[in-house]
Design brief:
The chain is α+β, with helices and mostly antiparallel strands and 172 residues long. The chain has a domain at 42-154: rbstp2171 (2-Layer Sandwich), CATH 3.30.2220. Helix content is 37%, strand content 10%. The protein has helices at 25-34, 62-71, 82-93, 117-123, 128-137, 140-154; strands at residues 42-45, 52-56, 94-99, 102-103. Strands 1-2-3-4 form a four-stranded antiparallel beta sheet.
Amino acid sequence: MADELYTPEVSDKPAPKKAKSSESPLDKLKATIAEEVERPVVLLEVPAREGVQLRISPNISQSQMRHWRKQAGEESKNGLDPTKFACYVIGHTTTGVEIDGQEVFDDDGVFLNFAHADILQMTGETRPVPDAVRSFFGTDPHIEAAALAVLEAAGYSDTVETVDPTNLSSTI
């Protein structure tokens, strides 16, 4: 008996038709799946820079994560440099900078990120990542803590809830 596969009963009868005015569960599912899944921009405080916040887009794919880990030395003899990886996370997700609650733009109205010439000039660096990020933050622990906050905002620490089907209402 334990070796037998469970086969659900299949009915030849069509599913009961719902009134035209109400949306079926299938219609609701189709509409839900058609919606783009994107996390909203978050603000990240820069601890050593009073009043400065970074605008972060926490929409990070696994492909991006793999690339950043590789760039940070994951496959090298010395292994992954966690601060360099954190710089990649922050550098590539920053979509703007705010100070005292106001977004900062250059003279042409363009938002700032770590690749912007003004940020490179302010930090005295030529490479946005990891150098400008490291100079902008000032301390490695702040960079790593910020990257963890970005990854959390991206959902990499989210838990997925399970539902016990035996606890569902019998009115289904």
